[in-house]
Every structure is written in structure tokens, then in C-alpha cells.
Amino acid sequence: xxxxxxxxxxxxxxxxxxxxxxxxxxxxxxxxxxxxxxxxxxxxxxxxxxxxxxxxxxxxxxxxxxxxxxxxxxxxxxxxxxxxxxxxxxxxxxxxxxxxxxxxxxxxxxxxxxxxxxxxxxxxxxxxxxxxx
Length: 133
Hints:
The chain has three helices and three strands, in the order E-H-E-H-E-H. It is α/β, with parallel strands linked by helices. Helix 2 runs parallel beside helix 3.
């Protein structure tokens, strides 16, 4: 006997440039139109574009990176709030910037800062923006 599918997870391995609001909305609406509940899973917002294989050797994120990340997290969570009737949860793919799989992918030993808590576990501007919504 087959069991029905009631929900699905959307992996959120995104970055400060992508996806845009329309792409996120279209994905959510497509799955919601099937009557599915949605979980956002593995959420992290990389400081680098997906295909960027450079290693600038940064030890701290630039002010521009942090600003873009704050704006992207704010856009993302505004959309999540719009669809709170179908989104049942959001799970980050880590806790703080102290450790992330993105420090080793797609460029080995390139520091990345994808979360809303910094390397010391302190809230970043991204945290403040999304909790103010």
C-alpha cells in the first residue's frame, strides 16, 4: 500500500546573490499548489556565488558581504512569513560561522560566513533583521 505524501523539504543552500524573490515564491507556490506542507531545510546563505571558485583569502567578511547577507536573509524571511500557512519549519544547516561545510566546498579552506551567528556565537545583522520582522 502506498502512503500519501503530505510535505516536502526545500534545501536552502543559497547565497547573497541568489535566489531572487520571484524564484523562491514560484517554488513555494508550486509545491503548495500540490497541497503539500513545506519545510525549509539546510538553510545557509553563502557569501560567494555558487560557481565562484576563487579564494580571496579573507579572514573576515567584508562590510559589503555582510550588508548583502542581511538583505538576503530579510528578503527570504519576509517571503517565509507570507507563506506561513504552508511553511511548517525552517532548519539552518549549522549554528554559527565558527564551523560550516562551506569552508570546504566548493573551495577547500576558503572561509565562509553563511549563518546568522558569527564565529563567536554572537548575533549578526542578519539575525537582527529577521527577528525584527
